[in-house]
Amino acid sequence: MTTNDHQNRRQLSSPGQKDQRKKREYTRVEVSLPAHLGTAAGDVPGEVKNISFDGALVIVQEPPPLQGVVFDLTIEIPEHHYALLTKAEIIRVDIYQNDDATLSYGLGVRFVEISAEDTEFLARTVLR
Predict the structure, then answer these.
(1) From CA 45, how far away is CA 63, in angstroms rounded?
(2) Which domains does the chain have, with CATH numbers?
(3) pLDDT tens for residues 40-65?
(4) In b/e form, how buried is each residue of 59-85, taking b as 16+ CB within 10 angstroms?
C-alpha cells in the first residue's frame, strides 16, 4: 500500500479524533514501515504510516483487535535491518473504504511497553 493509496481512501468513521490529537505529547513523523500485530487470532500484517516516541498509526486490512486490548506490535525498519518490539494498545480506529470498495483500518496505537534500546534507536534513526 503506498502513500497515495492511503490518501485515496474515503474515511467512514473516526470517533474522538480531535480529542486524541489534543492529547499527543510527541510529534509524529511520517513513515512507511512494515508491521505485524500479534493477536490472539494470529499475526496481522500492517503498515506504519506515522510514528512517535509513544505511539503510531498502523493501517491494516483485517478488522483489528478490540480497543483497549494490549497486543504485541513489531515494526520493521528495513534500511537498518532492525525491528522494534513493543506492546501496544489501540486507542482509536478509523475505518476507510478503499477505491475497490474493500475496507482498511487506521489504528491509532499507544506504546505501553517499549525497551530503552528501541526508544534510543527511534531517536537516532526514525525520529531524527
Answers:
(1) 11
(2) 3-18+25-124 (2.40.10.220)
(3) 888 999 999 999 999 999 999 998 88
(4) bbeeebbeeeeebebebebeeeeebbe
In angstroms, the Cα distances linking 83 to 7, 13, 41, 75, 97 are 26, 31, 22, 5, 30
C-alpha dihedral, 105 to 63 to 80 to 56, nearest 10°: 50
Strand partners, 33: 48
Three cell numbers written together for 100: 475497490
Amino acid (one-letter) located at 87: K
What is the reported pTM?
0.81
Question: How many CA atoms lie less than 13 Å away from 67 in the CB half-sphere?
Answer: 10
How many C-beta atoms surround the C-beta of residue 127 within 10 A? 16
Q: How many CB atoms lie within 10 A of CB 10?
A: 9
What whole-number distance in Å separates Cα of residue 1 and Cα of residue 96? Answer: 13
pLDDT of 87-127, one tens digit each?
999 999 999 999 999 999 999 999 999 999 999 999 999 98
